[in-house]
Queue: 2 jobs
Job 1
Amino acid sequence: MSESRTMPLIEETGLTQGEVIALRESGLDNVVKASTSRSLIDIVRANVFTLFNGIIFAAMVMVLITGSWRDAVFGMIIIINTGIGICTELKAKRTLDKLSILVASDYLVHRDGKDIEVPHNDIVLGDLMWIRSGEQVPADAQIVHTWGLELDESMLTGESRTVRKGEGCDIFSGSTAISGMALVKVTAIGEHSYAAKLTAQAKVYKKTVSDLNKGINTILKFMTFLVVPLCVLLIWSQARTVGGWNVAISTGEWRSAVISAVAGVVGMIPEGLVLLTSLNFALAAIRLARKNTLVQELESVETLARVDCLNLDKTGTVTDGTIRLDSLELLGVRGPDDMRGTVNEHDVRQALFDLSNEGQPNGTGQAILSGLREQGFADGTVEARVPFSSARKWSSIYDGNAVWTMGAPEVILSQINGDHADILKQVNDLANDGNRVLLVARIYGAAPDDYETDPKLNPASCPVALVCCSEHIRADAEETLAWFREQGVRCRIISGDNPVTVGAIARKVHLTGEHEPRFMDARELPADITELAQVLENVDVLGRVLPDQKKAIVEALHAGEHVVAMTGDGVNDALAIKEADLGIAMGNAAPATKAVAQVVLVDSKFSHLPDVVARGRQVMANMERVASLFLVKTVYSALISLGVVLTQMPFPYLPRHITYVGGLTIGMPAFILALAPNTRRYIPGFLKRVLHFAVPCGVAVGLSILSTSWLLPIFMKWNVQDSGAQLAMLRGVNAIILLMMGVFVLARVAKPLHSWRGILVLAFAAIGFGGVLVKPVANFFALVVPTGQMLAATTVAMVLSALVFLVCLRLVPKILSIVPYFKKTRQS
């Protein structure tokens, strides 16, 4: 603590040192405990102990027990996928842990009749505290004395105009003093202050819901019920094929039984899809980062594609938060005591500059000064000044020749002589156009003796000009909003400002195209969520919106089954951004708002949003395409496993075969296809459409392999007598058939093939069949080059499989069409 410079003399002595110590010991100081709802252990546990990891890990262990490590390479996917998940959530945890609305610094308090500086955390309940220009309010308080204190509460309320505060007014932590100063008494501290309550709500961890992950998890849950009993049955059936458990154990054939069972189980799990989804999200995030868009939660990339409702915060999104001087409208009106001739525009502009050039001009004053400085105006003669007062609503100067007054038009016109209905109409028209309108009045002659001590507006003053200022609309706002309209995304502007002003800005940026935007004062909104949802369907612009109402608006849109994105930059937006399906913060936003948003537009450019949504659509549409590839493998693996159990035959291929074929016809091609350009809008029913493709193809591949395995041993006489060698040859043929079927499926997924997609299919087909000829590859993956009798068997099997494939593609969809789940499936 240190004693500070002398402030204005006051009668109050403040708290004594003893009282401060007692309050601090009672926990009534300004300390806020920082914690999030997710510990490191929770994050690791949630990502390691998943259903997917459990199935794959168990399968990998079973294979390793047999000693065949080559057949266990599929287990590496656990490490990669888990690592991505943990890193993503740790990043979110670090962001949340740093979350703080209040800026920690030293503050001046009045104790024992003295002014001393204390740290933010040492402020106690009941302290008398000085709030000076430029300082952030550290705790909720009530004003005891004020010397023109003006606060910026936009981070809390969304209201972009600064607010003058009088004695007895409440002020809230998180607001910032723009001008003047005040002595205040602390009424709420620490976790009980307004800013701390907002922070606490914002810090609650919320996982982004992903349709892709939900679909994959649905499949995994279904497969869990199937995998465990099927795995047991496969092991039992494979042991039976070699003469029973006694023979299997004595000869070591149990190893082959376990490996065969795992081949069926691993094939049923779309392990590559889980990994590819995570990688695709990460790559989309990297691409967006190159355009100054930070994706803080990878799953939110997918949410971008599903957004059909975008709530825009006006200040910082549609406008850039700055005010500019637009125009000066000379009125050409002269009063009876103002007979010096016509109004000189240069004199009016000079007076306007001097009127705005107070010690601490507010945002409007700064905009006027900036605009006039660009026009070459500088300090003029000011012999006396009456500064702006929120009570008077006007300011005034005396320049040695005349008294000039500037302020709220309706206030000034009500206090001067004459009928000014026409001017008031002009003012209202300009205000309805989104302008902030000020009136300049003048009266020639000397200022009265009590001009500065007892300021009054001279009734003989003459209105000479209207000053129009407006918030600066982002240059990219109109074009960006037009893009969203074309894409079927409903945009609404939600602001703490006057609804008429916000409605005018909405009109300027053509928020609703050619239609007039419908605006409403949020104070008239119903509290009931159901009623609110109905009201919102007919509203485009909402003004005077409170932070809790923003959150309620998002909840109401959710009740209407909308996928909601919310943009913002103030603390008042944090709760709504967190509640939305997709929270988007501007780069210049408050730290609390950026911390809870899934996406941050680093350079605060609204025009990046189409890129963000387009990238999300690309991910969703492409992942739907490649998910079909992975689920084909799930379907045919389940069908083959079931066929093996029912017919008691050896499993038709090895785990390494499915690894090889899956890598070349599913994994690597899917990775490339997932990165291809795709602007298709999101269509509900992801899982249905994927299954509508995967089931027919999977059944075709499964029946092809089963047909080959059943028929070839009957009609073909192998040139080897050993049953083990015959099985190896049959598995070699099936590996080739599986590769051929995989290429067929890839060709269907990659359509149209008259572009680079066709070259992609041919390339992987060549690599796949060419790999059989490369000895190290063939040895590792147990591939066999067909020659002689095996070549004939392979040819017959390929023709048979092609016929089965074509028949299944025609018949299975017809059978599916009578299944209730698939009746209303929408095709992509």
Note: The chain has 28 helices and 22 strands.
Job 2
Amino acid sequence: MKIAIIGGGPGGLYFAALMKQLDPAHEITVWERNAPDDTFGFGVVFSDETLGGIENADTTIAQGMARRFARWTDIDIHYRGESHTVGGQGFAAMSRKELLRLLQERCRDLGVALRFSTLAPDTERLRASYDLVVGADGVSSLVRAAHAEVFRPSLDRRHSKYMWLGTDRVFEAFQFFVKRTEWGVVQVHGYPYSATGSTFIVEMHEDVWRRAGFDATEGADFAPGDSDEHAVARVRELFAEELDGHQVFANNSKWLNFTTVRNERWHHGNLVLIGDAAHTAHFSIGSGTKLAMEDALALAACLHEHPDAEGALTAYEAERRPVVESTQRAAQGSLEWFENIGMYVHQEPTQFCFNLLTRSRRITYDNLRTRDPEFADRVDVAFAAAQGLDGVAPAMFQPYRLGGLELRNRVIVSPMDMYSAVEGVPGDFHLVHLGTKAMGGAGLVMTEMVCVSPDGRITPGCTGLWNDEQGDSWRRIVSFVHERSTARIGLQLGHSGRKGSTRLMWEGMDDPLPEGNWEVVGPSPLPYGPGSAVPRELTRADMDRIAADFVAAARRGAAAGFDLLELHCAHGYLLSSFLSPIANHRTDAYGGPLENRLRFPLEVFDAVREVWPAERPVIVRISATDWVPDGNTEHDAVEIARAFIAHGADAIDVSSGQVTKDEQPAFGRSYQTPFADRIRHEVAAATGAAVIAVGAIASYDDVNSLLLAGRADLCAVGRAHLYDPHWTLHAAAEQEYRGPGATWPVQFGAGGRKPPAARTDAVRPRLSLLRPGPTDRAVHLRWTPTRAPAPVP
């Protein structure tokens, strides 16, 4: 093949070296606009997983890197005058300049043509004369920009300011310096990369940056390669204690806002993007160098395995995209955590450290226990002490008081519509469904959305509480839960609004009924989506009637014995549609600004709260974001939660979306928990109200991690309970927990232990048990170089 590579960074050079080794007949040329010794930044860091792939692909490069690595396993977190160390992580770093020299030398030895200080020819000219053109020209990629109509990039410029610096203080481990200043929180991400230096990244929210006066050079026209010396001098002063007499060095160091780059496509004909040109991930979770070199590995392998370029590029994108998108989701969680770090400065130091370490949701409690059991023990003890409890149990099995209601543990069976009622009456199916979930160990079991009127149903199969027959049937279910389990049972009340009169879920979710339908209503005559019914705009009289329906249903629910009531103000149903500017275009007192859009939902809440027994809690489920432009955001959610709490809500159940068919959710594991986290720290913690996290929380490790980090007080788990009705009790068995937080029904007591697994009588050779394997790692390994590394040839 004849291959053109635009960009001589690590990704482009590594790809060139790999391809030349796969077939020396390949004719490969690399264009790089900078000189060979020009490099910006200081150190690059790699994980063990990435190094494994590099070691397998090119031993010469791997060995050269290994000779230059600074290695360590510890993370030191400095916060509120205390330093905490967590071990067992596994890092390797080296000088970026050394890495580039190593890759350049390897390419020259292999016969790759390197053209430095040279702009690449026009992309279309290259495509016409080369078999493959690789865009490896970084975050400001000209290749990507020239073909934007094909790649369709999105550039998400974030809210924090950061600056890459270096220091001659050689850190022994990864360092997080979290500094509270008169202007706000400023943090440093630091790590060693050689025997003589460390990377020193300063980061702060833009609001803090402005208050601190760092904006004095905003708009200054720096020459290429120049640094913001004014800012560097201020950093030296601000972190004098942390630098401990050492120097700070600049290298093209200026304030930046991190930009997350995404592309809908990564290849176009014989043109392909790799590295930062295709995607970026925030530096707090990894390095662009790591991702770029992984891209190069995958691209070279796919080209080697497929007979044609198109098939190879399609395979490359199919292989790498899921990995990169997963990394970007984790990086998004991490960067948002640091953007909002000021929310957490009130946390006790051990919890703060755990929160920081688990910020991306990739590292969890179980991960940390495996890596550093001593630190995990400290986290457990601190959490129990904060709850005023003696002894240590898994966080999910600690009791919780919600208003006047005592819960045995912190697991909730989330409301899940079953569409299996007849004329709104719950039957034997609901008895078995909710009864088994209650006997499965959860602290609280929630009903599906129970509709307050016939025309408030979503489908003909939805349950209701608009007549006494329904109330009697619910009483039977509530009684069973109370008599046969330690769980409490909550009633979720709602009205379908513009999402009503639709088919059963398995017949066509959100599709209108073909016949026998009823009129749908909403705050404005705006349909939920294409093909949906156009709702009639509610009048004041309609609103009074619906509020009365909620009150009547609440009275029946109280009489049926429900322990808790949740008002459903999420997922685009009636009260949710009043809250959202996407569904509410009213021009009266119930539309327009958020204060007006809140008016009717708060009226309903107040009316329900008045008739609901005072000793039983009332909570509210909200959609924290609409996932569309011009819709509600997490900032609106904070104010919505604040309003409901001010009116007496005991908890906010934080979901998101389903307000419009146009939504674009950022799905992923525990993807909604950052919204709960924000509401808990900005509103609920100061008021005593609880926050419930929900959304793709699938493992007990997720639940424990969220609770220990202080992101929520309770966790609602839905689909996992459909998969395993005894999910909570099985989680107790998996964690070898026996206690009041997980009580097996006496009839099922014999199942309280995890069944034995298949065994083998094979005996491993004794010496293999005595000798540490190549993957064994000391819990605490620190970088303490005794001599400088060998010079680069």
Note: The longest strand covers residues 153-167.
